[in-house]
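Why should sequence recovery work at all? Because a backbone constrains its sequence more than one might expect. Tight turns favour small or flexible residues, buried strands favour hydrophobic ones, and helices have their own preferences. The token representation captures these environments compactly. In the example below, the structure is given first.
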């Protein structure tokens, strides 16, 4: 069963009232924000001036009104400009830190930490609603030889090229992340084992056909894939990932460029040779 679904992920910062206020101000035009603060300042200034004059038994005159109106307007305009600039800088810094926290700097996909948070939620959803869920782990074949032969910069290029191939094959609902080193992990919501095997086979085929050049030298890359399907008796996400790793070792032992799939909590294995 292959299905299109777009996952919605809430970050804890979305629930912070101060962040919501900051985004509201930043989403409002600069002119509107300035006018709002100026009007609030002028209203407060006039009120305080009238109260102060009344308490001091001083007659309320037009010059007093003018001073009460103009002075806060000038001050508020200057302060508004500074505040909005600081808020924009804060928002930019927050976005940079958030991106660093969630994404792998080399490949641009999710890092392992952020992936695990999403996967935990999807795992609980599959268990609660009894829906299909599959997971696959990919490992580049003979990646060390690539680094030794062409250098580490070529190895980095290979990892980025793999991401491009994956994005051409995977669906918008699939969650791709760098698992570590030359390993990548993909969560496939609403996908049974046969569907995950088919996606993995397309990934292997497209990668094997994808030509790369490094300093006028051809670089041919393949990878092995371990696939696992969630079962009702799968206790936790770690069990699911361990089963996918076992399937990956099976594919690597068969010579690479293979797809090996297992059922979580089962020793049944089926090796698919391309």
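From this structural description, the recovered sequence reads:
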């Amino acid at each position: 069963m292959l299905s299109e679904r777009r996952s919605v992920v809430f970050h804890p910062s979305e629930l912070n009232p101060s962040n919501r206020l900051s985004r509201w101000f930043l989403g409002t035009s600069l002119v509107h924000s300035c006018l709002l603060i100026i009007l609030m300042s002028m209203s407060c200034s006039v009120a305080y001036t009238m109260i102060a004059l009344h308490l001091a038994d001083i007659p309320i005159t037009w010059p007093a009104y003018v001073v009460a109106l103009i002075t806060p307007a000038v001050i508020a305009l200057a302060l508004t400009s500074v505040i909005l600039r600081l808020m924009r800088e804060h928002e930019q810094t927050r976005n940079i830190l958030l991106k660093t926290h969630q994404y792998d700097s080399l490949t641009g996909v999710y890092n392992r930490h952020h992936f695990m948070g999403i996967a935990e939620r999807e795992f609980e959803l599959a268990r609660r609603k009894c829906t299909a869920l599959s997971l696959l782990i990919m490992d580049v074949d003979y990646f060390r030889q690539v680094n030794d032969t062409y250098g580490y910069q070529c190895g980095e290029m290979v990892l980025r090229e793999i991401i491009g191939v994956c994005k051409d094959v995977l669906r918008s609902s699939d969650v791709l992340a760098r698992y570590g080193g030359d390993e990548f992990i993909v969560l496939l919501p609403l996908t049974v084992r046969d569907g995950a095997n088919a996606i993995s086979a397309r990934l292997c085929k497209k990668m094997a056909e994808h030509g790369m050049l490094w300093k006028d030298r051809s670089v041919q890359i393949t990878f092995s894939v371990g696939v696992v399907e969630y079962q009702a008796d799968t206790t936790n996400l770690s069990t699911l990932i361990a089963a996918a790793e076992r399937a990956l070792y099976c594919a690597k032992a068969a010579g690479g460029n293979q797809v090996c799939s297992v059922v979580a909590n089962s020793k049944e294995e089926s090796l698919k040779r391309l």
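A few observations help interpret the result. The chain has two domains: 12-102, 112-273.
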